[in-house]
């Protein structure tokens, strides 16, 4: 009787460990399936009002989760950018965020959660048929420059896309003429993709968990086989 009870307790302990390992494997695998979320700032009401100037702090997106927040600030002029209804080129529609004039400012965006990619349309105050200017993005995850072009309308413009395997929570934008001088610019339809939710387990972690499950299963089978042999 003692042997049977001991075997029962031992098997019960092994089964509990097996269940815990299964749960861990499920949780870590589920983290791999969490998809990124996309939010978009069109600078339309009610989140934004025409005439508002930077700093625009902790603003929710026009499209997407209201838990995502972005702060828009400018330097060296604190109120250097303004929400305005204008269409400098056909890429813009409705409200947008524009630099209001000299001195030329840098636009800084700060997010309350990490993002992996950003996209927006832009306009720079240069004649569409002139030498192309550019917009430069700088972030802790890297920098990128996008040349402007003739997209119609009365200013140069283009679409800027930046992504990084390293998530980031802030970026800065500035515009330049073909000679490198600073120039006014504006942005619209700012779309951000958040980083994958949760910590992504390394492959070695999944391998170790899988090995543990296989070991527990083998141990259970071995003990049952030995018990059946003894009883026979």
Q: Quick gist of this model?
A:
This protein is of the alpha+beta class and 232 residues long.
Q: Top keywords for this entry?
A:
alpha+beta, Jelly Rolls, 2 domains, ten-stranded antiparallel beta sheet, 2 helices
Between the first and last Cα atoms, what is the distance in angstroms?
17 Å
Count of domain modules: 2
- SS strand fraction: 35-45%
The CATH architecture term of the largest domain is Sandwich
**Discrete helix count:** 2
Largest β-sheet summary: 10 strands, antiparallel
CATH topology of the largest domain, what is it called? Jelly Rolls
Overall form: elongated
Q: Which stretches are low in confidence, meaning pLDDT under 50 for 5 or more residues running?
A: 24-34, 198-203
Encode the helix/strand succession as letters: HEEEEEEEEEEH
SS-derived structural category: alpha+beta
* CA radius of gyration: 28 Å
Portion of residues within helices: 25-40%
CATH class of the largest domain: Mainly Beta
Overall mean confidence score, pLDDT? 82
- Number of E-state strands: 10
Blueprint of the fold:
Layout lengths: L1 H30 L6 E4 L14 E4 L10 E6 L5 E5 L9 E5 L6 E19 L9 E6 L2 E6 L8 E21 L8 E10 L8 H29 L1
Antiparallel strand pairs: 1-10, 2-3, 3-6, 4-5, 5-10, 6-9, 6-10, 7-8, 7-9
Helix pairs in contact: 1-2
Structure description:
By secondary structure, the protein is an alpha+beta fold. The protein has 2 domains: 2-33 and 200-231; 38-194, Jelly Rolls (Sandwich), CATH 2.60.120. The protein contains 2 helices and 10 strands. Strands 1, 2, 3, 4, 5, 6, 7, 8, 9 and 10 form a 10-stranded antiparallel β-sheet that branches. α1 runs antiparallel to α2. Residues 24-34 and 198-203 have low confidence and may be disordered.
